[in-house]
Amino acid sequence: MNPFDRIRDKLRSLSQRERLLLLACAAFVLLFALVRFGVFPAVDSYRKSRAAIPQRQGTLARYRLAAQGEERIDEAFAEAAARLEEMEEGILPGDNPAAAGSALQGILKPWLERPDTRLTSVRTLAPVQKGAYAEVAVQLDLQTTTEGLASLLAQIPRHPKILKVKKLSVNSGYYGAAMANRRENLVASVVVAGMAAAEVEAKAGGARE
User: Fold this and answer.
1) Quick one: which of 11, 16, 69, 100 has the fewest CB in 10 Å?
2) What is the C-alpha separation between 19 and 25, in angstroms, rounded?
């Protein structure tokens, strides 16, 4: 008896339940093989192709620009330079990070000249190199009210210079029933940062990123 006949006889000898179980196992093996060797490679290929799209677009854009000739390349560089110059209007003035820090303090201090606000400390933090620019930050320690703090925070994003709140901590203290009629007093520490077109000197101890 050949092997195929043996297998056929063996299958015939199985009960209906055993045949169904065997078919289910065979279907599972086929499904696993389909997913493992068909679906997974297709998904992996799709992911790789999608990840390569930005790089391929950039390559084609540069090639298209080069194909248009030197004149078009000069125009593209001129447009990029104009956009950069416009953005650099938001950089703090100053030939070095120390001068930019002084300029930043000059921007911030007038915003704190309020009856409900008292500036207790102001200091320029160590600058941090950010590519071709330096990030300059000033820490303000103050006593104020909720309205005074909100006014300061609202002024920062509205300024023509590129400013951001890098750190903020507020302590309101304890207010019980006996202090309900007392004036609100918040103790706040705010770190405001801006960008400067300057190199961070090594002796200044600023970190480079």
Assistant:
1) 16
2) 10
Q: Which of 133, 135, 116 lies closest to 125, judged by CA?
A: 135
Which pLDDT belongs to residue 205?
Answer: 43
Contacts for 185 with CB less than 8 Å, ≥ 6 apart: 143, 144, 145, 172, 173
Domain count, the chain: 2
Closest CA to 91 of 131, 147, 47: 131
Domain extent, residue 32, equals 1-67
- Taking only the tens place, the pLDDT of each residue in 121-151 is 999 999 999 888 899 999 999 999 999 999 9
User: Left, alpha or beta for 173 (phi > 0: left; psi -120 to 50: alpha)?
Assistant: left
Find the largest Cα–Cα distance for the chain: 107
